[in-house]
Structures are given as structure tokens and as C-alpha cells.
Structure prediction request, 245 residues.
Amino acid sequence: MATKGSVEAIIEVAKKELGTIEGPKDNETKYGAWMKVNFQPWCQSFVSWCAFTAGVAKFPKSASTVAASDQFKKEGRWADARNDDPTPGDWIYFDFPEDGVNRISHVGLCIKNNGDGTIQVIEGNTSGTAKGDQRNGGMCVEKTRGYVKNNKKKLINAVVGWGRPVYAGEENAPLLSKVGSTDSAETVNTTTLEGIAKASAKKPAAKKAVAKKAPSKKPAQKTTTETVNTTTLDGILKASAKKAK
Prediction:
């Protein structure tokens, strides 16, 4: 059994809901009833319900895809589809082209990245076919979605971005997109290079200081040696002069 509140837990919960169909009335579901907005489009209610049922501690409890995505952005837990790759547990937000709604209007739970520009997503209130209503289709279905324009399966990319709840084990881990990670890596590398440059700059300075001291000591030793020798010779000459007298 998956750890309570973990990515594995929410995926387990979502998979058990596959095949669920709304009804008997339009948009009537246990997800909407739980959110207290029954008979309304329920894709966001579905993923929020999955998170709650799995024991996820922190997530947008909302029936609105716009409100939930805005919360992710506000909390710094949002990744732009142009700059990152989704991973299991991410909440994928869509804006389907030519559906008459020019904004985020659908969401699903990523359960796998296929590595070819597409992902597996479990979605509530979508269609079981590619031609049906993708954002209000009345079913809980696993879909293959493209998140980059030139994906290998040549699927339409309707993904705007994704948010990530705080799962068990990720409480102290900030959300880092590839852009964020790259920037961080560049900063670290730059800092490291600067540190190396500073260290290198200090080392030559130390060598110069030693070089300056070394010559100053040698003449001093020579002078001392010469003085001693001279003194010794003077003493010998004086002693010889006294004997001669």
C-alpha cells in the first residue's frame, strides 16, 4: 500500500476511478457533491477529491481550474509547459484549441511521462474518444496527451502548464522547473568559477610576497657573513701587528 499523501497514493486512488460515468443527471458525481458544487463541470473537483482521498496535505481544494492553477502560481508550484517536463503527480492544465473557451478549462493527473513529448493523464469529465468533448465529456478516462508541439505521436498540444501539490516526502523540496534548475546550476557554476578565480588571484599574490621576502633575507645573510669575516680578518691583522712590535 502506498504511503499516505504520496504521489503513489494519489495515482492509486485515481486509477480506481477509471470508467466512472457521471449521472444520472448532467455533471452529477460524488466529486462534485464532495466539493459542494454538484451538477457542475467536475474535472477539477475530481483531482482535488483524489488528493483528499489519498491524504495529500496541501493542494488546491477547488472546483475551478482557473482558481486552482492561480493558486499553484501564487504558491510558486507552477511550471510552464514551454520550459519543463511533467512528472507523475503533476496536475496538468489544458486549454483546448477551437473549443470556444480561450483560457485554462480542463485538468488531469499525470501518471507517467512517456519520454516522447507525451504523457499519460487520468482525467475526470472528459470523453472516452478523441473526437468527443475533451473538457466536459462526462467520463473518467486515462488519456495520452501531447505537451510539446512536435511530439512523436503527433498529438495536439493543449497543455498550458502544471501545478504540483505538496506530496508526502516533498514537504521541504521546492518546486524546480528545468528553467529554475538551469538558472540555479549557472549561478552555482558562476559562483564556483568566481571562487576559483578569487583563490587563484590570491595565490599569485602570496607567491609574490614570498619572492619579495626571499631576496631581502639573502643579502642580509651575505652582509652579516661578510661583516663577520671582515671583523675576523681585522682581528687577525691587529693581532699580527702587535706581535710584530
About this structure: The chain has two domains: 7-175, 177-245. Residues 36 and 63 are 9 Å apart (CA to CA). The chain has five helices and six strands. Residues 177-245 form one domain.
